[in-house]
Amino acid sequence: MECTGNIRKMESALGDEIFYQLPLGEQRVEMNRLIGHEISMEYQGQIHCIRCGRKTYKSFAQGYCYPCFSTAPETEECVLRPELCRAQEGVARDMDYATKHCLIEHVVYLSITSGLKVGVTRNTQVPTRWIDQGAVKAIELARTPNRYTAGLIEVALKAHINDKTNWRRMLSGSDSGGVDLVQAKRRLTKLVPDEFLPFVVQNNRVLELVYPVLKYPEKIKSLNFDKDPFITGVINGIKGQYIMFDDNRVINMRKFGGYLISLKTAT
Predict the structure, then answer these.
(1) Tens of pLDDT along 119-168?
(2) Which residues are CB-contacts of 230 (< 8 A; sequence separation ≥ 6)?
(3) 15 and 80: one domain?
(4) Residues 28 and 132 in one domain
């Protein structure tokens, strides 16, 4: 098999283990069936913005050209810091976009990636957001009417637990899977400001996620298409947005959104 196209972040679906597809242009490569097999990926020296499609010599925010990075609603500050969202005040780069993405129900969650962490995502992104972060377990803590409110709850909680993932530890397979998320939720709910307690979710369902991994790397070497335009090797597994190769090599495919690559495999 051989195909060429611009990378988008891997798409995922729930199952006995997470099912992955890698978009290359209009094609979708089923990645699970390639685990345990040798593939090659070659960067063709071109990057196209994942929003407008124009050719760019440098990628910003995982796939945008600089003009889109500076103006697109997808890269507004509240994407990373939801407490800064102002859509509820009628202020946004694009209010139509904000109405569909910020002024809808959001979930404050606890998950186990490289350890216990708190995060925020749109209700439509559950469980995709958890999979993209490589979470092995996740539980909803609160559901809020907008992004801003969810961000305020996250700020209150991240003073006590992490809101970031250590990707190296996440890829090591040392994922603190023994943490009791229900107990952690009870403990952290006590730290939620009183005004937000009505948003706390009573359902304590814990979602467990299993990734298609044959072997985790022991001493990680990060691959980069800008430095390593030709990558070849046996795929040992996929977790989050990372493909794990033999010889402890890993690559974050989402980081290279818009890069034009050719993928070849004998299967």
Answers:
(1) 999 999 999 999 999 999 999 999 999 999 999 999 999 999 999 999 99
(2) 40, 41, 42, 43
(3) no
(4) no
